[in-house]
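Handout, page 2. Input:
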Amino acid sequence: MSGAFTDGAAAAERVLTKLRHDPTAIALTLGAPVIMVILFGYIFGSAITVPGGGYRAYLIPGLFATIAVNIVPSMFTMARDSSRGVVDRFRSLPIARAAVPFGQAAATAVYGLASFVLMALCGLAVGWRIERGAGYALAALALLAAFQFAMTWIGMYLGLVLGSEQAAGQASILIFPVTIVSNVYVPTSGMPPWLRAIADWNPVSALAAAVRDLFGSPQAPANGVWQLAHPVPATLAWTALLLAVFAPLCTRRFART
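Output:
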């Protein structure tokens, strides 16, 4: 177990070192939160109202959730490594089979925290406030990092299945509806009943509601749905379930790619 953890830490260091020497990737990683706050907070926010507070106060926690569930970078990276033979070279090394996927997921969680902090600073600049204190704010960041860690395993698994950069790039458009059909950008109450049921039980809706709860931001109506009435335990349950399913799937796929 200690050997697997050491191998995973080395793989995570490789990803972070590679990112450090890629200014374009750094700019995209850190610039996306600023663009999202400006785009949604000021352009869409002028036309949308939410109960219990201003739209930007409602929006910022939802944007945290959007970053946490974005599997496109990990999917694209793993598909690229698979198509270029990098995965084959790693498989030839005497390391644990889960080390490389674990390292990728851990590294994503690390630089994801940088994105969350930057988005929080942008949110504070446009009027969003942390209402429940530092302890709850740290709990929200930890929850986001854990969920992002779980989602990264999904991205890596899909990247291995697709096997090429072109296919991963084309498939990335399919990720967009996952955040749209949720309570991230607007409350779900105004949706048609069939679509509202999907949005209310979307794990992204539970994550966004949990982050709003921990930061003390305005909440969307729960609509009688358990996971929206109890978003923190629901998000923890989703995180555990996603890890239990996709970590073994990704590890096995990586081992035989």
